[in-house]
Design a protein that fits this description.
heterodimer; A: 128 residues; B: 9 helices; 0% strand
Amino acid sequence: MTFDKFEYLISLYGAKIDTWPEDTQTSVTQFLLTSPAAQALMLETLTLDAQIYKISKPDFALGPMSAKIQQKFHKRKENRWLALLTSTKGITAIGSIGGLSGGLLAFILPLAVDGSILLTFAIGGIAP
Amino acid sequence: MQNKLDDDSLMQAAGKGDERAFNRIVQKYSGSIYNYVYRYIRIEADAEEITSETFWRVWKHSPKWQPDKAKLSTWLYTIANNLATDYWRANKRKMNEISHEAEHVDDSPNQEDKTLANSQLNAVAKLMDALPIMQKQALILMVYDDKTIAEIAIILGKTQGATEQLIIRARREMREKRKMLL
C-alpha cells in the first residue's frame, strides 16, 4: 500500500474501511498503523463524511411524511378519473356512448308505434 | 436478500392492482426518497410533489416490473433523480438562490460547541452546494443513502468508472476547500 493508493481509495469509499474492497482492508489497516499522513487523512475524511451525513439527515419525521405522500398519491388516483372524464378521450367516449344510445332510441322509437313489436323487444319475442 | 424478495413480492402484488402492497412500498421508501429529493431541490412542497410523482410512476409501471433488472430501491431513486434533475434544470436560478440560504443546525448540548459545529456545518453545506450537481448527488447517495458505486451508477445513468471519478473528485474538492475555510 502506498499513500497515493490510500488517498485514491479513501476518496472513493470514504472513511468506513469495512465498505472498501475486501482484498484491500487488511493492507489498509496495517498501513494506517505506520503512516501518520494516512492517519491524518483518515481523521479528516471521518469528520467530513460525518458532516456530509449530518447535513443530509432528514429534518422531518418519516412516519408523517409517508402518510402525506400516501394521501397525495390517493388524491391523485381519484383525480385521474376526473381528468379522464374531462379529457379529449373521455369526452369522445361519453360522446360515443351518447351517440350510440341516441341511435338505438332512433331505431326503437318508430317501432314503438307498433306495440307488439315493442313487446317483442321487451320480453324476447314471445308476444303474439 | 430477504429485503429484495419482500420488495419483489410487494411489487408483483402491486402490479396486479393490490393497493395494500403498494402502500407498504410507499411506507417503506417515501421517507428516503423524499429526503433525497429535498436535499437536491430544497423546496418542501416541490419535493413532496416529486416524491408523489415518483410513486405514481412506479404504480403505473408496476405491472411491467422486472425484478431481475434492478433492486426496487435503485429504480425508485432513478425515477426520483430524473424528475428532480428535470425540475432542477427548469428552475436552476431559483435553486442557486435557495442553496445559499440553507441553515444547518447541530444538536450538541454545549452552546459553544454548538455554535462552532453550526458554522462548520454551514460551511460544509455551502461547499456541497458549490459542487457540480452530479458530484453532489453521487456523494449524498454514497454517504447518506449507503448506496454502492454500482447502484449510484444506475441511478445517475453513468458507467461505474465515471461514477467513481465523480465521487473521488467531489471528496478531493471538499477536502481541499474545507482546509481553506477552517
